[in-house]
Amino acid sequence: MALTIRFGVRLFMQLACGFAAQVAIGQTQDASIKIERPNVVVIFIDDLGYADVRPFGQPRYPTPNLDRLAREGRAFTDFSVSSAVCSASRAALMTGCYHMRVGVSGALGPNSKIGLSPDETTLAEVCKSRGYATACVGKWHLGDSAKFGPLEQGFDQFYGLPYSNDMWPLHPSVAKLPVDAAARKSSYPPLPLIHDRNVVDPEVTAADQTRLTTDYTNRATKFIREHREQPFFLYLAHSMVHVPLFGSSANQDKSAFGRFADVMHEVDWSVGQVVSALEDAGIADKTLVVFTSDNGPWLSFGEHAGSALPLREGKGTSFEGGVRVPTIMRWPQQIPAGTRCDEFAATIDLLPTIAKLIDADLPALPIDGLDISKLMFSETLVESPHDSFYIYYGGQLQAVRDRRWKLVFPHKSQTLGDRNGGVGGSPAEYSQVDIELSLFDLTSDPAESRNVIGEHPDAVARLQACAARAREMFGDQLTGAKANTIRGPGKID
What we know:
The protein has helices at residues 9-16, 64-71, 86-95, 99-102, 123-128, 182-185, 206-210, 212-226, 259-280, 320-323, 350-357, 373-377, 457-474, and strands at 39-45, 74-76, 79-80, 114-115, 133-139, 157-161, 193-195, 198-201, 232-237, 287-293, 327-330, 339-341, 345-346, 389-393, 396-401, 405-408, 411-415, 431-435, 438-441, 490-491. By secondary structure, it is of the alpha/beta class. Helix 8 runs parallel beside helix 9. It starts with 8 loop residues before the first helix and ends with a strand.
């Protein structure tokens, strides 16, 4: 059954009303036909909410290039990250593992004593094993020590920031203090911009940040042009739409809906530039483009944050608004155009899937992701390869889910409740609430609004058994369970 529907508000409303999960899966081609190894472009946005682009329900400002990406590709409506926070999410993407397995949780700050272990095999290294040129442009955030940098993790080139763009002396927590205030002086060191292994700007300013998205985009398209004759992997990890929000003067006031929309306008422009570069180089039909996000919106920043509606909560929580991210994949003539996949998949699946597409070996160490190529290519209905998925935050197993059900364990979680977020780039303060043991039917209730824990004992028992396996492997600070299979991060001696 081919799935072609109109994107935009219609898709959003179908999901909000509990649209039954239907996916196109199977094989689009005869098994004897071998697909040519594709170039791979992964565009990773920072703190982009589920409903921040038109194909996933954003009704106010236009995102024409992302609309086009969806029209010419497949939108994934149930696509998850490993954890709703920066470094943990990126470690999972790069390794195909739950972040707990590789020992990277939370958001690593400047001068961190840990990073992604060089013993891990990254997506870049998988691609290099097949002769691919590799480039990382944008935010890294997997350890700022030289031993943990992108060039030590399989990338030929790097240009960008070592961590989040708010980890500088103007961090929102101290930005309004006097310049000579002790708290401001001791908050964060100057923010460096790095090219390969060299610091090319030791103190990134606000003016510099206005150029980041454009600069990243120009570097990315230059890499495409220079490597049009050989296979390549481009990881474009934008610093936006993480606060503080910055955009170029060319895109200021373009949306008429405020700074966040202006910054999204520039992110959308960047996607269009990447696609145009592929087309101009004559390699668009040979390139898989994946657009996704590291976690949901940072809701405490209010008018400077996006939206995950109709999903519950956002970044920093294990509810769907924190871990479910808008995802679009495009590969002309391979991925059916104008289609969607409502089956569950995750960023940990990209490494094993891309390894299959480029005929590369999987990492020697165990990984957790699964091949989702059938979810990408098929025009017939097939289920997700996942029978369970674990959601950890801060070392706590806070939820476990399958294709339909999600069991949330008792824990403390942040929320704004009925309050609005902050204004002008300053955050509102979260409240901490106690979450009770809850079961949600994500098929009919993706907003996680109705706890049906007493109505489906079989689902609860099955997910409790999955949770027991997770605790045995990765531990759980909520129950005191000790891990047995964690490899741990790299460490500074």
